[in-house]
Design a protein that fits this description.
Layout lengths: L1 E3 L17 E3 L2 H7 L3 H19 L4 H15 L3
Antiparallel strand pairs: 1-2
């Protein structure tokens, strides 16, 4: 996925007259790594959550930490 926009944590009082933020989900890479419809659903969900994290100002390193914690709870690595 790809988040395009200005994270909330970087917006100042002069933030206006800009295009809306956008999250793009890329179909081909998701289909390439998923075997079932359930895998696809979960990968899309995880991707959207990841990109929303960037919208809220969470950097890539912290997102990876959070995702590792999530995966431990799910029982997958």
């Amino acid at each position: 996925g790809l988040y395009e926009g200005t994270p909330l944590t970087e917006r100042g009082s002069d933030y206006s007259l800009v295009l809306p933020d956008k999250i793009t989900i890329f179909m081909a890479p998701i289909l390439a790594i998923c075997a079932t419809h359930e895998d696809i659903r979960r990968e899309i969900q995880d991707t959207v959550i990841h990109e929303l994290g960037h919208h809220f100002g969470i950097d890539e390193a912290r997102m990876e930490e959070l995702e590792a914690e999530r995966d431990k709870r799910r029982g997958s690595f």
